[in-house]
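2024-03-11 09:14:02 DEBUG pipeline.ingest accepted 1 chain
2024-03-11 09:14:02 DEBUG pipeline.ingest length=130
2024-03-11 09:14:03 DEBUG pipeline.predict start
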Amino acid sequence: MNIGLVCGSFHKVQVEEMIQHAQDEAQKNGLEISEIIWVPGSMEAPLATARLLEQDDIVGVACLGIIEKGETSHGLAMGQAVIKSLIDLQLGYDKPVGLGIIGPGAEEHHIPSRLEPHARSAISAIKAMI
């Protein structure tokens, strides 16, 4: 069963680590990551996710990224909009979307310990919902 990944490139080094964990989790769950799409940030994740969900051979999509805490509430507002859009996409396409976005509101010291569990949970959520 093929799944896709949508990955935010703003924190590319950390997200590349998340991809490794996602690939391992996919293999353990009998899933194959057949396509990885890099987007500038989480705001672009819904459009890339929709494009993957449109494909007949894709059974689900995991979104990986990080929304850090900023000086204003911009990140929180953006994160809420992105998550709502991803929920709407999974309902509209009737295909699971695994959320592996750390934050919104993540501070630098929060990130390293969350890379693996968020990536793995996004994949295991897809498997559970297929």
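2024-03-11 09:14:41 DEBUG pipeline.report The two ends are 10 Å apart (CA to CA).
2024-03-11 09:14:41 DEBUG pipeline.predict end
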